[in-house]
Amino acid sequence: MLKKTILSLIFALSSPLAFAQCDDFTAVELRKLRSKDTVDLCQFKNKPLLIVNTASNCGFTGQFKDLEALHQKYKDQGLVVLGFPSDDFFQEENDEADTAKVCFVNYGVTFTMLATSPVRGSDANPVFKHLGEQVGSPKWNFYKYLVSADRKEIQRFGSRTKPLSAELSTAIEKQIR
Predict the structure, then answer these.
(1) Are the beta carbons of 41 and 30 closer than 8 angstroms?
(2) Is 58 one of the catalytic residues?
(3) What is the pLDDT of residues 79-121, one digit of tens each?
(4) How far is CA 71 from CA 78, 82, 166, in A?
(5) Which segment of the chain is annotated as a signal peptide (predicted)?
(6) By C-alpha distance, which of 87, 41, 78, 79 is closest to 163?
């Protein structure tokens, strides 16, 4: 009996999420875009996050290309890019399959994309509810929120700030050091 308990404990502790418990706004599990699978954001504990509200039919939709380049450039240094499609500004596809096509097929996105959800107002998803309370809700699509690894610092960048801009790159590089 003791041996079985010890083996169960070892198995539980070997899970990648075993030590990923977090006590901040990332203590949430969200569904991936066009999937039944979910993502526990606690797995990104102690890593800086770049959180972006996206839309498939916006003048800024081309930023997906540069967000992917940013992801490729900094992922090995710990940066996690998270995309949150939203129809809050009436520029997202009605069907998640179409949203997924824009992201994954048209722009080759490999960073984590979550299911379409509200990003502002009283029905905002829990991540954007927190971001809105701390630094303000997005005023348009492709607002970028750079969150420090310890979750104590949040910087907000508007839609016009390009993902590969010197301003955003400098801020990211300060966070990954």
Answers:
(1) yes
(2) yes
(3) 999 999 999 999 999 999 999 999 999 999 999 999 999 999 9
(4) 10, 10, 15
(5) 1-20
(6) 79
Alpha-carbon gap, residue 17 to 80, rounded angstroms: 16
Q: Which of 22, 42, 58, 103 is catalytic?
A: 58
**Taking Cα atoms as reference points, which of 137, 169, 159 lies closest to residue 63?**
159
CATH code linked to domain 25-176: 3.40.30.10
CB contact burial 154-175 (16+ within 10 A = b; e otherwise)? bbbbebebbbeeeebeebbeeb
Beta-carbon contacts of 17 under 8 Å, excluding residues fewer than 6 positions away, are: 40, 42, 43
pLDDT confidence of residue 110? 98
pLDDT 10s digits, 132-160: 999 999 999 999 999 999 999 999 999 99
For the entire predicted model, the pTM comes to: 0.88
